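Efflux transporter periplasmic adaptor subunit
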Amino acid sequence: MKRKILALGVILLIISGVFVLTQRYQRNATHQQKTAIKQIYSCPMHPDYTSDRSGQCPICGMTLVLKKASEIKGEKTEKGVIFISPEKQQLIGVKTANVGFVSLQKLIAAKGLVDYDERRIFSINTKFEGWIEKLFVNYTGKLVKKGEPLFTIYSPELVSAQEEYLLSLKNREIGKNSQFEEIKVSSQSMVEATERRLKLWDITDEQIKQLEEKGEMTKTLIVHSQNEGFVIEKMVVEGMKIMPGESLYKIADLSSVWIIADIYEQDIPLVKIGQVAEISLLSGKVLRGRITYIYPYLEGELRTVKVRIEVANPGYVLKPNSYVNVGIKVELGRRLAVVDSAVIDTGERQLVILAREDGHFKPVDVKLGVKVEGFCEVLEGIKEGDEVVTNANFLIDSESRMKEALSGMTGESSKGEHHH
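Structure:
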């Protein structure tokens, strides 16, 4: 009986010892596990590189830093989301901005060619044949004032017309003393008819008045310019015989000119007739004109559409066939937008890095609209009030992609660590 009691005591003692040892082992294991979790080191520049030992990062050579428990816990967030501590954010220069509505203005820049206003080009000719006696405007480029004499011309037809006019004047004087009203009316009608013929030949009222006052015809007649402008073509010389309608001079009024600007195909929907365009000269001076016509065809090689801008030309500073810079500002109104530095454009996708609370960041696909100076319109993906990264976003995106790739290789280890 004593032996049985002794044996039972030994067994109980053994069981008690095993239980004590098991509890101590479990406590030690838990302590070691907690210690292992806390003793994880990572690279400040490459957070996805981790190690259970201190040292240097094999990628960039920076000293590894000990990760906090909150950082380790943050690694178990959703796919693509990474945690960056405030210290690391400051180190890599993370900056953010809120998404909101902005009054957008797009500047369309183009090259323009100065051209003559086709409505202000005039051809100088006569309506009768004759011979040029003397030229007063005898070189190309001369500025001609309206009413300025151009040349003198001898024309047998013109001499005959003057004689007929003078004869009609004499007959009118005789008819005034006639007792027959029909003769008075007829003589007056003759004067009006011969005077009208001279006017149809562009003889001025002043010249007709001088003819009437002198009472004798002149061999040659001075032809005056009916327009003001620069002589851009001269086809006449002294002694030359001319025919009715033959072009003798071409005169261009340069007080207003056209600018023909080439607008790229994608910008044409934003261009409207009546919009103001700014013309920048090499001297720094800026002129303003208005779009008056959009050509209905596309230049095949350049993929541009020509736009005609009408602009006043004070001092004739705009020279035909010279190039100028054209700027057209288009008001787009208030639209949801982000600064362009917040957008990562891979060619196939456009991304922004969404900044969440507690230092978490996630790349988000967005659909963009127009891109203007400093801003991108946002159509889909984010909303007003969201906070996005505007600086160091490429670095954050690359780290997020690296995390996804490494997670795929390691099966998203529950221990939250991997070694390179």
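The radius of gyration is 47 Å.
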